Amino acid sequence: MNERLRLLRDELNLSRAAFGQRIGVSGDVVNNLERGRVEIKEHIIKLICTEFSANEEWLRTGDGPIFVEPDTFSLDLFVEKHGMTGFELDVIKAYFELDPEIRKAVVSHFKNRLAARSKEPEDLRADCPSTPEELERQFPPVESSNSEVG
User: Fold this and answer.
1) Cα(68)–Cα(58) distance, rounded to whole angstroms?
2) How many folded domains does the chain comprise?
3) Exposure check for the chain: N or C terminus, fewer CB within 10 A?
4) DSSP 8-state code for residue 54
């Protein structure tokens, strides 16, 4: 477990002091825990898992993912993870502040606009035959009843 504690701290990119501060112990205590000089007490394990969203099973046994995925969605965490700008976040928040009927209209507008865009000329060419043989198969030549040749 001591090695996994170090791996967790490395994954979080925290110094021993910063890691310890978040769980209420000194950097020296974290050092001793990582080196196996001190047994990791139950309450420390719980603090670590709570503070860092660490998977307790992984910390204890090495099984499973290092982190527990939260059950809830956080827009702020999503924004941070995807590097969105403050303006982009404001646009999203403004959208959710709209009346639900207006949001429906906005979504409908974009669905229609994007559907129309997918039928633009360059996309229509995908349905065109790619060889003369395929063209004749789809559109057989019409026999002319006029046999006069000029």
Assistant:
1) 10
2) 2
3) C
4) B
Residue numbers of the domain that contains 37? 2-61
The conformation of residue 62, written as its DSSP 8-state character, comes to S
Residue with structure tokens 């303006």? 87
pLDDT tens column, 97-143: 989 899 888 888 888 888 877 665 555 566 677 777 777 777 777 76
Q: Which of 74, 118, 145 is nearest to 127 (CA)?
A: 118
| Same structural domain, 10 and 53 | yes
Residues 83 and 111 in one domain: yes
Name the β-bridge partners of 54: 67
Residues 10 and 56 occupy one common structural domain = yes
d(CA 93, CA 90): 5
pTM of the model: 0.47
